[in-house]
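Incident log, structure service

09:12 report received: a user says their structure output differs between two submissions of the same chain.
09:20 pulled the input from the user's history:
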Amino acid sequence: MTDTLTGFTPYEYRTLQVAPEQEPLYKDTFANFGWIVEKETAGRPGTTTMALQVKRDRRLPNRQVINELQRQAEDALRSIRDLERSRSAAAITVAVALGIVGSAFLAGSVFALTAGLVILSVPLGALGLLGWLAGWWSHGRVLARKTAQTAPLIDEQYDIVFGASEQASRLLA
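09:34 re-ran on a clean worker, output below:
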């Protein structure tokens, strides 16, 4: 809404830090709340995010309702991100723990071998290698189980995002 006499439009600005794979979702979602993407840049060095710089007219109709719907959508987007991270975090934790146990057995095997206890060294080495194999195998199993557990929760959060976006889009039309 430009002031017809002065040509002035008051804008508000935000910078969103998003994962590259989530960029289209964020662009579509924020467009429904009146935001226009001005610039996309790589995130800060050492991070895996990118920055979306957005702006929108401050004189938005139904501004309070749209801001509340936007908060709901942002909360749901954060929940989606956290649920997706929890899947891989659980799988990595189990795999690393089993890998460490396997490494401990392998270290015990080396110590037994240097002490001249070959009979003890072989089973400890076998247990160590089995620990490593169990870590690799468990990563896939835990990831699949956590994915099955979180998929319905993620879908619920997507429904919240889409519902809030649809309502906001109608209010802005």
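09:41 both user submissions now match this output. Likely a transient worker issue. Closing.
09:42 reviewer note: Residues 19 and 47 are 9 Å apart (CA to CA). The chain is about 65% helix and 15% strand.
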